[in-house]
Amino acid sequence: MIFGTLSTTEAAGAILAHTVAAGDVVFRKGRRLSEADAATLRAAGVQEIQAARLERGDIHEDQAAERVATVLQGPGLTASAAFTGRVNLFAEAAGVVVIDRERIDRLNRLDESITIATLPEWAEVAPKQMVATIKIIPFAAPTDAVALVEVMSALPERGPALRLARYRPLKVGLIQTRLPTTKPSVLDKTAQITTDRLARLGGTLVRERRSEHKAPALTSEIRMVQNLGLDLLLIIGASAITDRRDVLPAAIEASGGIVEHFGMPVDPGNLLLMGRIGAMPVLGLPGCARSPKLNGFDWVLQRLAAGLNVTRLDVMAMGVGGLLAEIPTRPLPRDRATEANAMPHAPHVGVVVLAAGQSRRMGELNKLLAPVEGKPMVAHAVDAALGARGIGPVVVVTGHERGQVEAALPGRAVIFTENPRYAEGLSTSLAAGLAALPQGIDAALVCLGDMPRIAPRLIERLIAAYAPTEGRSIVVPTHQGKRGNPVLWDRRFFPAMAAVAGDVGARHLIGEHSDEVVEIEAGDPTVLFDVDTPETLSTLSPTKVRTS
C-alpha cells in the first residue's frame, strides 16, 4: 500500500487518510475518491491530501475483515457487515463463549494489520452481545496474510477458534442438609436463590429435598432422586465440606458415585466438590452458593448449562481471575442482564416503512400496489428490510387504501399500524411508525414504500456504520455526493422526528446535526430513485399499468 501526500490532480481512486474540510465540502477519512471528488476538492482550493493507494497484493480493509470474520465465525455467532475495516461477531443466544486462545494468539501474531479482540475465555454472554471484533488497522491488508489466517483458522481437528455454547434447559435436583439449629427460612431462601440462578441459565429446579446432616440420611435422599432423569444434582450442606471423607462426599460414594475433585482456586467458592453418579454430574456446593452474588459455583454451573464438560483440570485452571471477593464490579446474577445490555451489543434497529400516502401524482392509481417484477411495489421495500441481517421489527404504516396495502403483504412478519391522519402529510406517518416501534429499540431505519430498488445489503451497510458512541448517530446513503434514502436514526432523535409537521420528513434534522451524520456511498443510484409518476413506473415494470 502506498501512503503519503498526493496532489488532488492524481487523487482519483485514492483513499483519504484524514477528513478534509474546505468551505462547504467535507470528505471523511476512508472515502475512496472519485474523479468528481477530486475535482470538487480542487474547486474548493485543496491542492494536496494525505491518502493511501492500494497496490497489487493488497486487500481493501472491509474485504479483508470480512474474510477473516468468515473463518472465525463459529456456530452460534453472527457477523455484522464490514465498516472501516471492522467486523463484529455477536452471540445468537445466551451461553458461554468457547475460545481457542492459543490459535487467536497465533493469528494476532501473523501480521500487524490484522487484529482479533475477544471476550475472556469462557465468558457468559447474553443474546446479541458482542463476542469479538476483527479490525484491519490500515486501509488494506496483505493478501498473503489474510490467506494465512484462513488456513490457520480452518483446523477441523481442533474445531472453530470461536464458538458459542448455548445454554440448554437443564433439569436439576437440589438436596439440602440441616442441623437442629438450621432455620427453615435459610433453606427456603437457598431453594429460591437456586431456582432463580438456574432460570437465568434456562434451567429448572425440578425437585428439592431436605435431610439430616448425616451420611446415611443424605445417601437415602440421593437414591430417591437419582432415577428422576436429572441432568445435574446439587447438594448443599448445613455445614461446609472440610474433607473428602466429610458427610457430602461420603454420601455420594455410598450412593455408587465418585468424587472427582474437591476445592477450587476461586474465592468465594473454594469449598466446591465435583462428583458423578453414573452419567449425572453432582456438585457439593460451598456456603457462598446460598447468596446470589457471583462465586466459583457460577463458573462451573455456566459451563455445565452450556453442555460443556468440566474436568478437575478445568477447575484448577480457574485461579487467574478467580479472586472475586474484592471486585466491586462483580454483579449479582439478577443484575447481570442489565450489565449485558450496557455492554457493546448488536444494535436493535427497527424499520419503519411509510406506505400510507395517496400517490396524488399517479392519478387514481395507488402506486404502492402497482406490480413491479411480479409483486406489488411496497412488497419490494418490505422484503428488503426483512431480508437484511441485524434488523428488528418491521413496522408498515398504512393509511390510504389500508386494507389493500395490508393484503399486498401476506404472510410477512411485519407490524401494521394505521395512520388515520395520512392526508395531513408524510410527517404524521413518520410519527405513527416511530410510536409503533417496541421498547428497547436503539435506532430506526425509515424506508419509503415507493423505493423498490433498495437491497438488503445496503441496509446491512447502514447498520454497520451506526455507532452513536463514535459520533455516527444518523446514517445516510449517498450516490455521487447526493443524499438519498433510507436513513437510519438513533432513538434520541425520535421526539424531534415525531414533532415534525406537514408533508415533510425529518431531513432538516440532518443539517442541524451534521456532526452526528455519516454518509455511505451506495455505489449506484438506487438510493435516489423513487416512483412518483406513471412514466417512472413504466421504466421499472414490463407489466401494463392501469391508470383508471
TrEMBL record:
GO molecular function, a single term: molybdenum cofactor cytidylyltransferase activity
Entry keyword set: Magnesium, Nucleotidyltransferase, Transferase
Domain MoaB/Mog: 173-306
Coiled-coil annotated residue ranges, if any: none
EC number: 2.7.7.76
InterPro entries registered for this protein in UniProt: Bifunc_Mopterin-bd (IPR012184), MoaB/Mog-like_dom_sf (IPR036425), MoaB/Mog_dom (IPR001453), MobA-like_NTP_Trfase (IPR025877), Nucleotide-diphossugar_trans (IPR029044)
Listed SUPFAM superfamilies: Molybdenum cofactor biosynthesis proteins, Nucleotide-diphospho-sugar transferases
Keyword ATP-binding in annotation: no
Pfam families per record: NTP_transf_3
Top class in the EC scheme: transferase
KW Nucleotidyltransferase (keyword) present: yes
CDD domains named among the record's database cross-references: GT_2_like_f, MoeA_like
Official protein name in the record: Molybdenum cofactor cytidylyltransferase
